[in-house]
Write a structure and sequence with these properties.
The structure is a homodimer of 367-residue chains. With 367 residues, chain A is an alpha/beta fold. Chain A folds into 2 domains: 125 residues, Alpha-Beta Complex (Aspartate Aminotransferase, domain 1), CATH 3.90.1150; 199 residues, Type I PLP-dependent aspartate aminotransferase-like (Major domain) (Aspartate Aminotransferase, domain 2), CATH 3.40.640.10. Chain A is built from 16 helices and 13 strands. Chain A has a 7-stranded mixed beta sheet with strand order 2-8-7-6-5-3-4, with helices on both faces. Chain A has a 4-stranded antiparallel beta sheet with strand order 9-10-13-12, with helices on one face. The radius of gyration of chain A is 21 Å and the shape is globular. Chains A and B meet through helix 2, helix 4, helix 6, helix 11 and helix 12 of A and helix 2, helix 4, helix 6, helix 11 and helix 12 of B.
Chain lengths: 367, 367
């Protein structure tokens, strides 16, 4: 029989229910968010106009910052934030985690375009804590903290440690920048408002297509003189588009629809992680999620687990994930990020899925 | 009476007919282009997927290039083109016109992000010709030609001179890049296909929100190894968005709708320019347009001309322009760019407008 490379993804898509995300990333994501638009509102024009101004003001207020600027992407927004803080201090070095988005997903834009050298803090498998910053030997202009640290399952420092890191950075003249790609998602765990978290940071980036589930786009917020400089760099990067409204209006629509649902996603993640952890050879990272996301680590080879999962979905009608990643020869893992889809899965179907999955995993270890 | 700063723009907007452009840049531009979308098509994902692949292939074929990549903006696409050609030759210098978009509209992104030094060719008020290139003293990696040269009214070299420039550049190992922000618009004048014009160039950028009238977005086309590199730089710039489909699908929609209308816009521009040139104290640049655009130079102070134009629109119901720019104390000018709007203005109303305008201008000079 021909081995089908997409067996898992096909089975996931064909299942009656999908556990992760908000639904398909198809054109309806845009269309739904524009269904209440008459079409009469004037486009933003190169960063000006009612649509962009009002959303930027709304986000500045929500984040508790003086000013906020809409960007097409976080990649652009964060490189620019780093550049501004480096130019201000005159030291072209920033500190961040070894698995920071800027380090592993941006083709070294920070180095190639801005000639900024990163100082990598902490082990890749741990989060950055105050002690890592205190023990840092290099002088840097800025420390970037990603909350939660996505590539290690979405882990967080305690709020007390975060506060202490912030205090230390202010004392030492190091700007503190928040990679808040998933900021909305961690507020229930911290039991803080966005403004309370952002108050610890000099600048903040948030994304609108993760937990919020919009089409694309990002906000960079901070002091007015910082955001004014960011507009100049946005133009230099080619991000000052004549019209950003397709992203802005959809971001605004889904922000209103989902920002208050983060608690539900978070509770769902804890519930789902417990179901995974009850299975043979499975452990989630973190064991107890602190946001809507976590990683699932499996003691089984990828190709074997793909078959087990696909069979499980076919029997239960519930798809858990569409992708596995190898993690050595006999281990694999995947990322789980919960949204509206999870809220629609019947509890009975979910329980049945995990009973089936666990049975298959146990049978496998007995062979 | 309080002087209203927006008197001209208000009068233009309030007129029954507007002579320039395709209509209001409002949200309906997006909505109209999505009216035939069911919503079921999957989003592009970070530069992959059917929507982006098929449009890129369509544009590569149309432009006669091996490969084409969709970018959120021309600013991003062109800086990247310059960077690739400079890195390939190892000389961080490019040649372009003193009023090139990269020189005057991009906050020096080329210099600040890519450390590329421009060599300015020709007088600002003239177009670059082969002789300017031959007489250039510096060695450069690339020559960028903007066709038509927008900031001087949209002027063009003859096709023969263009061919000679291209031949010279190939002989000397200088890459030739086309700033084709308005490439579609010049094809009727040259009486060439896009592929025939693009064959003279190593790389080409085209825009989808000028003559095409889409929401935003650009294509960069060239050899496959060039466009592959451009994808890496697109990611570095923060332009490799998770979803570009709002721009791609609207670009495709309006491309199909308008690319064959460029001849009509061009004929309209020649007709309209003749009407302007028959007025007292008015000269268009160029006298005879070579695309859908031209500039209108007026021998009258801006504030005076604003009043004259606003009064004319109020009487005739036809708005000619909403913006004037000062050009010394007693002169002003504005840009005209024709699209669908022009085709909807009744000839009688247009003639009446110019009769009124000319009368007012003549009365003014008699005072």
């Amino acid at each position: 029989m021909l081995y089908n490379k997409n067996i898992l993804l096909d089975a996931y898509k064909n299942a009656k229910y999908q556990v992760t995300g908000h639904g398909k990333r198809d054109v309806s994501v845009l269309l739904d968010s524009f269904s209440n638009q008459s079409g009469l509102e004037e486009s933003d024009m190169y960063g000006s106009g009612h649509i962009i101004d009002s959303f930027q003001e709304k986000m500045a207020a929500y984040l508790g910052k003086e000013s906020a600027i809409f960007f097409p992407s976080g990649t652009m927004a964060q490189q620019i934030a780093m550049r501004i803080w480096c130019d201000e201090k005159g030291i072209q070095k920033v500190a961040y985690h070894p698995l920071c988005h800027l380090e592993i997903h941006e083709e070294d834009g920070l180095k190639e375009l801005h000639h900024i050298e990163p100082v990598l803090l902490s082990d890749p498998n741990k989060i950055i804590k105050r002690d890592d910053v205190v023990n840092m030997k290099e002088d840097v202009s800025c420390l970037l903290l990603e909350l939660p640290q996505r590539e290690i399952g979405g882990q967080l420092p305690s709020f007390e440690d975060l506060q202490a890191t912030s205090d230390y950075c202010r004392e030492k003249g190091i700007k503190l920048h928040l990679d808040g790609a998933r900021l909305f998602e961690i507020l229930p765990f911290y039991n803080k408002t966005a403004a309370e978290v952002c108050a610890l940071f000099d600048s903040v980036y948030v994304s609108f297509y993760k937990g919020i589930g919009g089409v694309a786009g990002a906000i960079l917020a901070g002091p007015k003189d910082f955001t004014e400089k960011s507009k100049v760099w946005k133009r230099r990067h080619g991000g000052d588009l004549i019209s950003l409204y397709p992203y802005i209006l959809s971001a605004d629509f889904y922000f209103d629809q989902r920002v208050e649902k983060m608690e539900e996603y978070y509770e769902g993640a804890k519930e789902l992680a417990a179901l995974y952890n009850a299975c043979e050879g499975i452990r989630t990272l973190p064991i107890t999620p602190v946001s809507n996301m976590f990683h699932v680590h499996v003691q089984a080879p990828k190709h074997e687990m793909e078959r087990i999962l696909a069979d499980t979905y076919a029997e239960s009608g519930v798809g858990l994930t569409g992708h596995l990643r190898e993690n050595g020869e006999n281990r694999c893992f995947f990322e789980v990020s919960l949204g509206d889809n999870y809220l629609a899965v019947p509890n009975s179907a979910l329980k049945k899925t995990f009973t089936l999955l666990n049975k298959k995993l146990k049978t496998r270890t007995l062979v």
